[in-house]
Write a structure and sequence with these properties.
- One of its GO terms (biological process) is iron ion transport.
- Keywords: ATP-binding, Cell membrane, Ion transport, Iron, Iron transport, Membrane, Nucleotide-binding, Transport.
- It is a peripheral membrane protein.
- By secondary structure, the chain is of the alpha/beta class.
- The protein folds into 2 domains: about 160 residues, P-loop containing nucleotide triphosphate hydrolases (Rossmann fold); about 70 residues, no CATH class.
- The chain has a 6-stranded mixed β-sheet with strand order 6-7-8-3-9-10, with helices on both faces. It has a 4-stranded antiparallel β-sheet with strand order 2-1-4-5, with helices on one face.
- A hairpin with a 2-residue loop joins strand 9 and strand 10.
- The mean pLDDT is about 95.
Length: about 270
């Protein structure tokens, strides 16, 4: 069966100013999959994601959406298709949760278009999905770090794009909310959205994603399903970690168990 792709990179080299971060990136994101980008710190994961979102533009090569260069799309048109949750975001001072989430509807607004029942419903659903309904009137700067992260996720949900890109979305969340968010992203994927996210936890990536992109030293090391990708050899080669791989007792997906190092007892 042929897998379709709306988002792809063709021989892309990308970085900031004159500093190159990643080279020779050639890959396609399978449509309507949950894709996780994994790799050690500094390997280019976030740069790859930002390239897909047109936050940074390639030094060479092309990023393609529906087989056309991202640069050929107007910002508002692209914002109706691709939604990005950056690694860090700063809310305007004094803004309330509802109002920040409502900014996700900006791509649909114009001088001739008033706030609609569809906009209201999108915000209401986004607040409910992220368990923020009761906090909707609170000031964002009064919330905990984890609560603020959920507000940004809600704003992304309110944008209602078919493709969602999230840069380390679980970083500021405690363990229970990490899994709540990943469950939500999986549900959205099962409902038809393409989810692309940078994750650090290999077991979470293996459990939730059906497609992995593994990066090392600014290059694509390999891609594939967790069953194809997560092996002791890859974990050692990419992360420098000796481990054993066993089926996750809950999902059956590959789970990584680091091998204990032998230490000489103190004399």
């Amino acid at each position: 069966m042929t897998t379709t792709s709306r988002l792809a990179m063709n021989n892309v080299t990308i970085g900031y100013d004159n500093h190159t971060i990643a080279r020779d990136l050639k890959l396609a994101i399978p449509d309507r999959t949950f894709t996780a980008i994994i790799g050690p710190n500094g390997c280019g994961k976030s740069t790859l994601l930002r390239g897909f979102a047109r936050v940074i533009r390639p030094q060479t090569g092309q990023v393609l959406f529906d087989e056309k260069s991202l640069d050929s799309y107007k910002p508002k048109d692209l914002a109706r298709e691709l939604g990005l949750l950056p690694q860090t975001s700063i809310a305007p001072e004094g803004i309330r949760v509802y109002d920040l989430v409502a900014r996700g509807r900006a791509p649909y607004q114009s001088l001739l278009r008033q706030w609609s029942p569809e906009d209201e419903e999108a915000v209401t659903q986004a607040l409910a999905a992220t368990n923020l309904t009761e906090l909707s009137t609170r000031l964002v700067d009064q919330l905990s770090g984890g609560q603020r992260q959920r507000v940004w996720v809600a704003m992304l949900l309110a944008q209602q794009t078919p493709i969602m890109l999230l840069d380390e979305p679980t970083t500021f969340l405690d363990i229970s909310h990490q899994f709540e968010l990943l469950d939500l992203l999986r549900d959205l994927n099962h409902a038809g959205k393409t989810v692309i996210t940078v994750l650090h936890d290999l077991n979470q990536a293996s459990r939730y994603a059906d497609h992995l992109i593994v990066m090392k030293d600014g290059h694509i090391h390999t891609t594939g399903s967790p069953q194809e990708v997560i092996t002791p050899e890859l974990v050692h080669d990419v992360f420098g970690l000796d481990c054993m791989i066993s089926p996750d007792p809950v999902t059956g997906t590959p789970a990584v168990f680091p091998l204990a190092k032998t230490h000489n007892p103190a004399v």
